Amino acid sequence: MTSNNAFYAQSGGVTAVINASACGVIETCRKHSDRIGTLYAGHNGIIGALTEELIDTSLESDEAIAALRHTPGGAFGSCRYKLKDIETHRSQYERLIEVFKAHDIRYFFYNGGGDSADTCLKISRLSEHMGYPLQAIHVAKTVDNDLPITDNSPGFGSVAKYIATSTREAALDIASMCSTSTKVFILEAMGRHAGWIAAAGALASDTNDGPPHMILLPEVPFDRQRVMAHIDAAVKKHGYCVVVVSEGARYEDGTFLADAGNTDAFGHRQLGGVAPTLAGMVKQDLGYKYHWAVADYLQRAARHLASAVDVEQAYAVGQRAVECALEGKNAVMPAIQRDSEEPYSWSIVDAPLERVANQEKFMPAEYIREDGFGINDAGRRYLSPLIQGEDFPPFENGLPKVASLRLEQIAKKLPEYHL
Amino acid sequence: MTSNNAFYAQSGGVTAVINASACGVIETCRKHSDRIGTLYAGHNGIIGALTEELIDTSLESDEAIAALRHTPGGAFGSCRYKLKDIETHRSQYERLIEVFKAHDIRYFFYNGGGDSADTCLKISRLSEHMGYPLQAIHVAKTVDNDLPITDNSPGFGSVAKYIATSTREAALDIASMCSTSTKVFILEAMGRHAGWIAAAGALASDTNDGPPHMILLPEVPFDRQRVMAHIDAAVKKHGYCVVVVSEGARYEDGTFLADAGNTDAFGHRQLGGVAPTLAGMVKQDLGYKYHWAVADYLQRAARHLASAVDVEQAYAVGQRAVECALEGKNAVMPAIQRDSEEPYSWSIVDAPLERVANQEKFMPAEYIREDGFGINDAGRRYLSPLIQGEDFPPFENGLPKVASLRLEQIAKKLPEYHL
């Protein structure tokens, strides 16, 4: 047994499959116990590294770790905590290296989105600068699908499948009632800046004629008159209209349709409530009976409806991260590469972190249909493979079974640290 | 082949399994083609009978009918249309009998909730009065679980499973992020008058300590101060608080927490938006970061997560309705009887419609825990069997497959009728 230990942390908003990545990291570390000692997990992400709250994953049974593959949420705790900039708050980064040193941590696996890719890169550079031998590998995760380089982000395929399925199911409900009841149904999907998740609603039907009859993307400025005219036309043509709206839907000037006015720890505005806002417009302008749903966390936690492709990819990037470490790589992120579209096949390539950090990937204009109210066939060809296959979790007593972990922390060695 | 035809109609809000009842009715009719001729389905429920828009189900393939078992929504169209009172609008009822006469319809299967049970009973009585030999059988359906006599209503078990599963999944999400992000999560569930659906959220955990840490039922008057104190205590104890709130949550004086001010065709107020209303109170009174979800139609359309028990029961009441007709019964509703709790077993009994019509079954006080913020063990024992078992639909191309019907209407024989 070596004393070269490893550290794994989950960062930012969790997904239905981030624990599948954790499973990939942990199981692969266990396979290489000759070269990787103990894998510690940060309690509540990077905060656990700063405060030296390190969970000893070696105390978890193989069975518990395997169950992570079908458990939503972040099993070790995640956080919305952005490290301050390295120039003025260097001590925070130095503290991390100190903790790593104190526990012989040579491998740092950071499971997150764009912000954490940036943190991962900074830590890698600082350790080099400080002469501490650390390999920092980023494990891609985000429901928003906005990471660059990688063809798609683990976590997205499952939320896409959830939104497409929910749209199909709800549309059948509305279709059967519309003669005397609800004419307009609005489903609000996540996606602050990029419309990927809302766009996936299009997969509910095989044609662009819907349902959904309209998708409102952040990429296309909201024009109330045009939107209402389109809804009205759909009701007149089909008897009802199903709309999927992105929480990031905004006006030409960038103002969000519904802006709660709050900001989260990363300085992003806290959104929510676009669906009722839009419903209010429908009522005012068209007078149709409406219903609306806001899926919120349900969509990104819905492991019961995960995409099998997504689960496999989430596991694979975790596994590959450990292999990268063993191959001596540093400051890389295993990325998914689309090798073929029909039939869909993919492989993993190692992307240098400086090409990933702090970049957002938006929906390309080529995927958006001409009227702006949905996606075209190119968009469908991109999205469809990502929702393929089911990977139902085991059920017990009528409910999905989830991993039960001990989450025991090791003794601290360093003085207390205040965030 | 006999010329004694049958008529089937779906009524009111649809469910994930109302088509499973349709499947039970149609398949059982087909088995008895010596005694039951053609089964017609009303296009958009009872409206189809009034307007003589009769779908010829004999044109559908066995395969298409079998697929109804896993298709949400109302395949033949449903409606929110309450027949006016028989004293002053007798002509409407007489029209129904005329249509039935014109098409040799001797069996009337009406698939709905309490309001349609009442309609079914009235039609049965009027036909008797008019000397037309009609057997009217009610097929129970409602997500609200508020039908009397029957132990539970087909449609409820699946929405209960959806709410319990979604609560469990979302709670894992919040638990993993609460140290730096959302502290209070609110899920709004359906249930205008009875708290059954919200109560099912309790099944997300095996204990009454949650999550969910609080369920707000219409049966328990809303007291803002007590509710906020409970949320605050949960956040302080667990780090976060998950609340499931019924859309019917109301103040002592009966005012709904969020009242959109609209009424539907039955004169019920159109609700929605309790979750954001409650979230606003959390923000104002406690200042915690919150998120909220409104599942709306998603919950009652979620056939992908149906309870196997519910699907079986929905099919069984449809099947039994036809058997009742063949046994010469009239004005009855096949009801589910709980024969044993552990292990759960059930059977079907035929309940006279006069005992069913226009009665609502509320959550009994014995199921509500002492503080009013959830259910107790007796409530769990009642609810748990209803969400047991999975009955995943077939998936194709990443999405649940649904029935594809021809829905061809037969030629009209009578003068046009205006609603």
TrEMBL record, chains A, B:
The record marks 141 as: Important for catalytic activity. Residues 9-324 form the Phosphofructokinase domain. The active site is at residue 144. Substrate binds at residues 142-144, 190-192, 247, 297-300. InterPro entries: ATP_PFK, PFKA, Phosphofructokinase_dom, PKF_sf, PPi-PFK. Pathway: Carbohydrate degradation; glycolysis; D-glyceraldehyde 3-phosphate and glycerone phosphate from D-glucose: step 3/4. One of its GO terms (biological process) is fructose 6-phosphate metabolic process. GO terms for cellular component: cytoplasm. GO terms for molecular function: 6-phosphofructokinase activity; diphosphate-fructose-6-phosphate 1-phosphotransferase activity; metal ion binding. Non-allosteric. It catalyses: beta-D-fructose 6-phosphate + diphosphate = beta-D-fructose 1,6-bisphosphate + phosphate + H(+). Pfam families: PFK. Keywords: Cytoplasm, Glycolysis, Kinase, Magnesium, Metal-binding, Transferase. It is found in: Cytoplasm. Diphosphate binds at residue 13. Its cofactor is Mg(2+). The record marks 115 as: Important for catalytic activity and substrate specificity. SUPFAM superfamilies: Phosphofructokinase. Its EC number is 2.7.1.90. Belongs to the phosphofructokinase type A (PFKA) family. PPi-dependent PFK group II subfamily. Clade 'B2' sub-subfamily. Homodimer. Catalyzes the phosphorylation of D-fructose 6-phosphate, the first committing step of glycolysis. Uses inorganic phosphate (PPi) as phosphoryl donor instead of ATP like common ATP-dependent phosphofructokinases (ATP-PFKs), which renders the reaction reversible, and can thus function both in glycolysis and gluconeogenesis. Consistently, PPi-PFK can replace the enzymes of both the forward (ATP-PFK) and reverse (fructose-bisphosphatase (FBPase)) reactions. This is Pyrophosphate--fructose 6-phosphate 1-phosphotransferase. It comes from Kushneria avicenniae.
